[in-house]
Amino acid sequence: MGDQWWFCLKHMAVEPEKGCPNKDRMGPYETRETAANALKTAADRNKKWQEADREWNDG
User: Where are the beta strands (DSSP E) in the chain?
Assistant: First the structure.
């Protein structure tokens, strides 16, 4: 397995596998760039889910 990257929510920074506890970060991601975009990826997925879920929109 190659290197894994994480996005630390505590420090708002990309970290290698050895970093903050997993409870404080998102990942793993295959590349440093993908980890750096973790918050945008999550926001885009949440928006797509909310737009597709009629109960969410009607509630």
Answer: 5-8, 13-16, 25-29
